[in-house]
Amino acid sequence: MKxxxxxxxxxxxxxxxxxxxxxxxxxxxxxxxxxxxxxxIAKVAEGVYAAIxxxxxxxxxxxxxVIGNDGVLIFDTFFTPAAIEELIAEIQSLTKLPIKFxxxxxxxxDHTGGNQVLAARGVPIIAHDNVMIWQTTKNKRFLPAPExxxxxxxxxxxxxxxxxxxxxxxxxxxxxxxxRLDAMMTIKLTNPTKTFKSGTMTLDLGKRxxxxxxxPGHTGGDVFAYVPDAKVVFTGDLGWSRTLPxxxxxxxxxWIPTLDQILKQHPTAKFVPGHGNVAGAADIKDFRxxxxxxxxxxxxxxxxxxxxxxxxxxxxxxxxxKSFAFQNxxxxxxxxxxxxxxxxxxxx
Length: 348
Prior knowledge:
Largest sheet: 7 strands, mixed
Number of strands: 12
Oligomer: single chain
Helix content: 40-55%
Radius of gyration: 20 Å
CATH architecture of the largest domain: 4-Layer Sandwich
CATH class of the largest domain: Alpha Beta
CATH superfamily of the largest domain: Ribonuclease Z/Hydroxyacylglutathione hydrolase-like
Number of helices: 12
């Protein structure tokens, strides 16, 4: 457990950096907080929308929603209550139908941090059985204690007070940081209300159906959704579009065949990934191939006698993946893959 705790201490700042938008340029002013600061709505098909998280905003991970004849399904609840409230407002600008279901693709905080808002509205939140176990326990690794958040806010406020007005960019980033810290202070880790362990679950939105399924890979508690009439798949973090993944809880040896199965079953679908832009099958195949390439490189490194530290130094990211977002995950990916192949990785 000690080794596992050390690994979490190392990876947690990287996951928080995603939430704080450290890996992508920040260009949106924080003067007037609004939905477009946090995510971009993209129409994927008739009545099917993606909400693509923006760097530095309050969403952090992608979400989306499906409008049926008698209600709306929300897929994932972002990182903060403020962001999901903004998404609900966007939905209400498109339809007056009630929110009938919400789905958590997995337990990670950037996809479940808004659960409390939907629970307060009485909306059923559906997830894998394991999310019920991990949501309010393992997520504590990624949510600093209130006193730590208060300290960070005080530090940022002092920096803001000491920053001259002419340094507008720096002041804007500090204002955004304070806004994020304020939003994080409101998070109350909230469990789903209905779970399933295997197979599929069909949710009824009137004439439109949404099929939930679970396959292993990213966390051991992953759910994705398929909208048959629109041919749209919401992958959660089983799919990443031109983005290096977080492998802290992953089992890549399971993940690759999962992606093969999804691609075989949905070759013409559009995909709403957990991170990155709306994707086609080719983009998801590129991500699948990244995982396969990572596994092959690390397996060869182990065969060549490399230690984990040597592997992290020598197994550099191939050129074709250097345009992917979240480049800071490149070295941790090698570390996680090495430990998985050596059967020393502690996962869920």
